Recover the amino acids of this structure.
């Protein structure tokens, strides 16, 4: 789509060049890119809540992991022969390097502050012979790659206790355990980052509309979109004409994608998964742990339910969480409606959704088991990581909703996809993002892909600026070790990661 800025005479309160639906990390990231690349374009953002970053981007609604595949075992599963292919982990790490560079650029230019990201070791921790053997093979596979060259591995109880004391206190000295560690991991407060980005947009001319819910979008005669927006306080609705629309409303994106009627959105459905965390209230326990420690998912559990004992930094304060415990709610947003799931069923996605229901009974069983798990049962799961954990001293908090993507499959009829799915119209006038992890961590590369697909006429002229913002753009850093080291050192300096 060729998009040029309107003249002052053409502009009005109900017209905009770019309309962003949702005030989360994805809309904020796309807006920040466009402010850098096309500063003369009008941008309007509509968010149903009273501030940005309150749904999946909120720090209490996600794990805050800077997803670089350093500790997340589901990104590097063992193959049928027991070997571990590093390709997917490398790809995710490459994407996170792009994110780090973009954030570093914005901090360096004074557009945002760097307090949203903190250095924090990433660890994987398992027990038992089979899991320990797997983790060793994973370490051998990944540590041979330049992006993972600082990874350490140990089965020694004493060494693991140095890395994360809580894991080993009270543990049977005869139990076989294994851990890998990358000291250079990060914790990211995506809520704080989102609000920094949105504040940057507002300070540079973007129109920010909180408490406004987009209820519909339809094609207009000019080739763009008429977007219906409702003020949640006054209940009044108005129509805004936009030449490009990004549907970035998290779990709420599916309904709006369906209302757009674009053929590229046909066949998609959503499977909502909720969750809970245990959050420590004991400062002595919180101070004794300083890492993100990921384990193996339970049989039938979705990848986003991988258990982890996590240090978090929220608004600069250190905290400690364990979870998540899976659950089910038909809501597509934490602040959504119980009718979200049933109202998403359409003739074009019914077969994929039924196929997924049939083929994922283990997931359903897992979720039912998790929902019925008692508080003592939740503490028992915690004690597998932290043997001396007490039942008291932990608050149970509800995490955000995750809507996993259901899509057509020629063989099975439908598949449940864990990850993100970028959908764009053929004419490039609308884009939408569905799915979950590692989404927030990889928002910048995802949005670069969206811009490439939706603004092909402009993108060629933007690449020099993108390269300026992201020095490693277009380069596989895992194949260019010296450049990777140089970029890591610079982003560490700017982001104050040590």
């Amino acid at each position: 789509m060729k998009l040029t800025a309107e003249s002052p005479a053409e502009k009005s309160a109900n017209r905009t060049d770019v309309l962003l639906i949702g005030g989360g990390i994805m809309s904020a990231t796309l807006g920040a890119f466009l402010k850098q690349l096309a500063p003369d374009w009008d941008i309007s953002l509509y968010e149903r809540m009273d501030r940005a970053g309150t749904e999946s981007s909120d720090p209490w609604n996600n794990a805050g992991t800077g997803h670089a595949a350093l500790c997340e075992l589901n990104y590097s599963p063992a193959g049928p022969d027991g070997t571990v292919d590093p390709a997917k982990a490398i790809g995710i790490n490459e994407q996170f390097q792009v994110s780090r560079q973009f954030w570093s650029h914005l901090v360096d230019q004074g557009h945002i502050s760097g307090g949203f990201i903190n250095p924090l070791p990433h660890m994987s921790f398992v027990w038992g012979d089979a899991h320990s053997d797997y983790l060793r093979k994973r370490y051998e596979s990944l540590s041979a790659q330049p992006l993972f060259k600082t990874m350490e591995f140990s089965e020694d109880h004493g060494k693991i206790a140095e890395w994360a004391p809580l894991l080993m206190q009270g543990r049977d000295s005869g139990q076989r355990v294994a851990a890998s560690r990358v000291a250079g991991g990060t914790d990211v407060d995506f809520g704080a980052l989102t609000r920094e980005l949105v504040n940057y947009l507002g300070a540079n001319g973007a129109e920010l509309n909180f408490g406004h819910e987009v209820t519909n979008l339809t094609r207009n005669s000019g080739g763009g979109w008429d977007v219906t927006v409702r003020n949640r306080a006054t209940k009044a609705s108005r129509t805004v004409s936009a030449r490009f629309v990004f549907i970035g409303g998290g779990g709420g994106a599916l309904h709006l994608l369906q209302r757009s009627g674009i053929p590229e959105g046909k066949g998609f459905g959503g499977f909502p998964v909720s969750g809970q965390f245990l959050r420590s209230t004991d400062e002595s326990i919180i101070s004794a742990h300083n890492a993100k420690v990921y384990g193996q998912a339970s049989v039938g559990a979705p990848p986003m339910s991988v258990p982890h004992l996590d240090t978090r930094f929220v608004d600069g304060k250190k905290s400690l969480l364990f979870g998540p415990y899976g659950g089910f709610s038909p809501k597509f947003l934490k602040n959504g409606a119980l009718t979200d799931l049933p109202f998403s069923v359409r003739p074009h996605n019914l077969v994929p959704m039924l196929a997924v229901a049939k083929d994922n009974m283990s997931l359903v069983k897992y979720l039912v088991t998790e929902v019925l798990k008692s508080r003592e049962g939740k503490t028992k799961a915690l004690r597998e990581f932290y043997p001396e954990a007490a039942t008291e001293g932990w608050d149970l908090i509800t995490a955000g909703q995750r809507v996993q993507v259901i899509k057509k499959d020629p063989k099975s009829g439908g598949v449940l996809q864990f990850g993100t799915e970028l959908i764009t119209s053929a004419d490039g006038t609308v884009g939408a993002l569905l799915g979950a992890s590692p989404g927030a961590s990889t928002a910048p590369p995802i949005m670069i892909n969206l811009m490439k697909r939706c603004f092909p006429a402009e993108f060629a002229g933007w690449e020099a600026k993108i390269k300026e913002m992201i020095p490693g753009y277009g380069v596989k850093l895992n194949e260019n070790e010296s450049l990777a080291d140089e970029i890591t050192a610079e982003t560490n300096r700017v982001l104050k990661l040590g």
User: Anything to note?
Assistant: The mean pLDDT is 92.
